[in-house]
Amino acid sequence: MDTNILKGHWNVLKGKVKETWGKLTDDDIAEIGGKKDQLIGKLQKKYGYTKEEAAKQVNEFEESESE
């Protein structure tokens, strides 16, 4: 799923994002707004992931949601 698809389906996916990464607040979700790079940055900040680990998790999430 590319960034545009993530953004296009954000209203549907944001609940699943919050379930997957429970440390993200409603404000975080609103700030992310479907932008993949914003989600990766928030995961780095909230979970202490490296950029690579955060990107890997987001990519895996996208793949699971696109099936």
List the domain count as a whole number: 1
Share of β-strand residues: under 5%
Q: Percent range for helical residues? A: over 70%
CATH superfamily: YjbJ
Q: Can you count the helices?
A: 5
Q: What is the name of the CATH class?
A: Mainly Alpha
How far apart the termini lie comes to 10 Å
Low-pLDDT regions: none
This entry's quaternary arrangement is single chain
The major beta sheet can be summarized as:
none
Architecture per CATH nomenclature, i.e. the level-2 architecture: Orthogonal Bundle
Rg measurement, Å: 11 Å
Overall mean confidence score, pLDDT: 89
**Inertia-based shape:** globular
H-E string: HHHHH
- Which structural category fits the helices and strands? mainly alpha
CATH topology: Protein Yjbj, Chain: A
Give an account of the 3D structure.
This protein is mostly helical. It has a single domain (3-66), classed as YjbJ (Protein Yjbj, Chain: A), CATH 1.10.1470.10. The protein has helices spanning 3-8, 10-20, 26-32, 36-47, 51-66. The longest helix has 16 residues, at 51-66. It is globular, with a radius of gyration of 11 Å. The protein starts with a helix and ends with a helix. The model has no long low-confidence stretch (mean pLDDT 89).
